[in-house]
Amino acid sequence: MARDVVICKKNELEIDIDCEQHILYELQEAFSFDVEGASFSPAYRKKFWDGKIRLLNMTKKTLPSGLTYRLCKWCDKHGYSWDFKNNPYYGLPYEQDERIFSDGVELFMNKIASVKPRKYQVDTVFNSLKEYRKTIVSPTGSGKSLMIYSIVRYLKSIDKRTLIVVPSKSLVEQMAKDFIDYGWDPENVHKIYQGHSKDTQAYVTITTWQSVYGLDKFWFRQFDAVVGDECHQFKAKSLQGIMKKMPDCKWRYGFTGTLDGKQVHKLILEGLFGPVYSTVTSSDLMEKGFLAKLAVEIILLKHPYQKFDTYNDEIEWLGLCEYRNKFISNLSSDLKGNVLVLFARVEKHGIPLHEMIDSGTDRPTHLVYGMTDVKEREKVREVCETSNNNIIVASYGVFSTGVNIKNLNHIIFASPSKSKVRVLQSIGRGTRKAKGKDDFKLYDIADDFRKNGSRENFTLKHCAERIAYYVEQDFQYRMTTIPVGMESTGAGELPI
User: pTM for the complete prediction?
Assistant: First the structure.
């Protein structure tokens, strides 16, 4: 019996779609999405682009392989029959590894690592290996490195080699250290970043994407599997380019702490790695005692009325606002334990803020941003793990992901942000438990420039979006309003 849609695996990257033209047009529309902010693009304004991303290639009649299950669901929903066609080399578009059983995975994980795996970790590794590909959402502190390690160890046991791509040098070192701590021989792990050799026979290669994205496709052919850590960053064209150089890689796994909530972003990641699989929530981990419990204190600074024409104008003013920085300086100095102060702009906020904090306290202070050497970052981390009196002033870009400091007691959002990924990843810096630490506090600094019911300023709207993220994640929060910038009130005081 003829089917309306016949799906064949072209390679591990793409599927071929055989159907009538009118169905193809419907599919193109179904897998097309509006790009946020497209109207500001010169190409859009000149009518060279309609502001959409199309995941279906109409000329080649192909779709990213990771979206196979969505294609089948779409056909079922719209009454079109479908079937799979076997590719003699690549097999069927969807298949499962019949060798993988949950009990066997649990026994294997207990055998290969020095720590006992949690149930959700076993379930994640089982489902990942069973179905060959997954986009895995796993919050900070959930034991992501153990899951990746278990996948890699299994692949080694069947003589398969794995490439792990991470966004930073720090994460290369950190993941390699985690693997060795779990009990693996260092000879099995090869690291690539600045100046490290790209020649390797190791079973797992851990690299920054910057170090390999310019290499030709022949270099990538040595790998049977690819793991993208912090895979939410894989929407960048250069990162997608790496994946496209690995058309024969059967095992594909993307790990991230959170997705940004945009449908197109989610589908791009699913296309590269496979369907989204959520391991566990941060609130569940906190409730079960695996993570430190979070309390969010939103500090709404009430400024004298001002009107800013653009978001950048407002951000620049806030970064250089002396009384605002003084408030943050006083707050960070008064808090007990290690404090992480996060900023967005280095020259116009981070450096002057650090100078103000450093000059106003006897406590050790550290400035960390993109130009800070990897070894220096590691020193800061080690100092914080062995003492409880440090203030770290760091950029979101460096410290919001991939830096594990268990002994963090407080985080201050000194710069406003509306990025869901940045907010939740930053919170993850404080969730890890340490000796004597069962909870931690986030101070979210927000700013209100309204007067007599005037419209909300840009960053106040962003605060509302962050609150929505806290509610979504079931984090407890409260808001305190403090007048600032007025002669009678000074910078204000917050009860700690």
Answer: 0.82
